[in-house]
Q: What sequence folds into this?
């Protein structure tokens, strides 16, 4: 087994086809097919099921490809690192849900980087599926998953399967956000019937492993309102509410300074009783760096200050 064969197998897995992989790799189809068979023979397992529809990974193949991607990413990192004369920059990377307490922690963490220290910080706001893929395929080191507590079995099963370590950050219930000058802010007892008259702003990309997206959307985006705007960017959501007084959104608790900046108020409502969890994830074999630990310290502080 060698790195070239790993690269071949990963490309075949991504394209699902020997022919397509051969084109992308600029190798002959017979040579690529022979290399995959030699790789399977050396490992003593079948990596792909062959059919008229293409090449499909076997369970052993899924495990092999997962580790191969990680190895190839590390090789690329080492080559890039030393082609530029050695290690010069510290690197921090994380994928997170759109949450103000996490953004607050990252902002404070960024100020801890010394002025004479070279560093690259990558902060990606996205959904749980992409956070997992960023660790497994894009060389991100940390991720934070957000999911409803009732979906925990699905996530734990998937994290074990993918070789991910996980640790609870916090549990919370969503609060209702709305414009401080809007009529909704003046209502003491907000019910589902009342919300039907207002426009809901919702996160546009819910995801739960092993469940149909339509089923997840039905639960995560219940649609109390007759009108709904699906938005991916958190800042755009706040800007919408600051401009449109007849909108609302469900979100994790916000810091007071952010509420004041956008002219918003947050209310706890019994109509949304679902409990959510934020969980820190990384590869089981990964060792936290100094930057990772600094960020986690700020994350815990922000969580205590904003969520409690």
A:
């Amino acid at each position: 087994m060698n790195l070239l064969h790993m690269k071949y197998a990963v490309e075949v897995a991504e394209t699902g086809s020997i022919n397509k992989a051969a084109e992308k790799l600029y190798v002959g189809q017979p040579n690529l097919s022979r290399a995959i068979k030699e790789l399977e023979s050396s490992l003593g397992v079948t990596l792909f099921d062959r059919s008229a529809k293409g090449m499909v990974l076997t369970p052993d193949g899924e495990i092999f490809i997962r580790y191969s991607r990680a190895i190839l990413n590390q090789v690329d990192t080492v080559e890039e690192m030393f082609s530029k004369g050695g290690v010069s920059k510290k690197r921090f990377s994380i994928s997170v849900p759109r949450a103000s307490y996490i953004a607050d922690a990252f902002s404070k963490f960024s100020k801890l980087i010394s002025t004479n220290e070279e560093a690259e910080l990558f902060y990606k706001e996205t959904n749980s599926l992409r956070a997992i893929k960023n660790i497994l395929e894009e060389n991100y080191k940390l991720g934070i998953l957000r999911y409803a507590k009732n979906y925990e079995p699905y996530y734990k099963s998937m994290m074990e399967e993918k070789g991910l370590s996980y640790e609870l950050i916090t549990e919370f219930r969503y609060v209702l956000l709305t414009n401080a000058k809007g009529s909704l802010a003046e209502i003491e007892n907000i019910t589902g019937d009342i919300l039907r008259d207002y426009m809901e702003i919702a996160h546009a990309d819910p995801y739960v492993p092993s469940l149909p997206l339509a089923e997840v959307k039905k639960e995560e985006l219940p649609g109390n309102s007759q009108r709904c705007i699906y938005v991916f960017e958190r800042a755009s959501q706040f800007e919408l509410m600051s401009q449109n007084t007849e909108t609302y959104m469900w979100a994790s608790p916000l810091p007071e300074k952010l509420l004041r900046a956008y002219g918003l108020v947050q209310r706890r409502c019994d109509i949304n009783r679902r409990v959510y969890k934020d969980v820190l994830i990384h590869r089981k074999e990964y060792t936290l760096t100094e930057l990772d630990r600094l960020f986690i310290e700020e994350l815990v502080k922000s969580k205590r200050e904003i969520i409690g």
Observations:
- The two ends are 52 Å apart (CA to CA).
- The CA atoms of residues 156 and 263 lie 38 Å apart.
